[in-house]
Design brief:
mainly alpha; Serine Threonine Protein Phosphatase 5, Tetratricopeptide repeat; elongated
Amino acid sequence: MQELGYLEEAKIYRKKTINLEPSYAHTHFNLAITLPGLGKTDEATAAYSRAIRLRRDYPEALINFSEIVSGRRFPQSNSIRCQAMEALLDSHTYYRPEDIVPAVISIIKKKGIITIILQTESSLELRDNLVSFLEGVCKVRLLLQIMRISPIPDVEIEKALVQIRNVITKSLSEVNISERDLSVLSALMCQCYLNEYILLFGRRNQKRFTIRKNDSR
């Protein structure tokens, strides 16, 4: 109880400090480290996100942000949290991709263009709108980042990306691909390898291990 009382006092004091110095990353960081002990994980996530938005190369904030979003899924979109996640991925450290993928997927699926693509079931419709879809995906930087570094264990996103790859492959001679679209194509190639080879290979090995384990009993 005494510790909770101290944390509550610290929270109040640090919120006052933010009011005085709202543009200093460390004031938001100091608040963030106080909140988990009070059971306020969402508020802590928001405070770390603000700290990282103000200072993208803030190692302590990035490490703690990575830990607090690990394995989580967010029900609502939040631009500041998205920016913090982009900064985390840009760091190329402080995180394990498989730990933060659930959080990244939950953020990506709230993006308007991704929602539209996920709802597009017809390859013909996808082909007719391919250019606009590629332009939209180019703006979802978080998706391009995660596609390059980790398998995406989400059936809906994987299905949509496979469809896009198939349509692009069949329409290369008909579609004018801009230089900006090349970032999407390179990310798609990385994702194809990660999802269809590394992830599939890992699942097959896990299945073989399970079979051998059962046979040895």
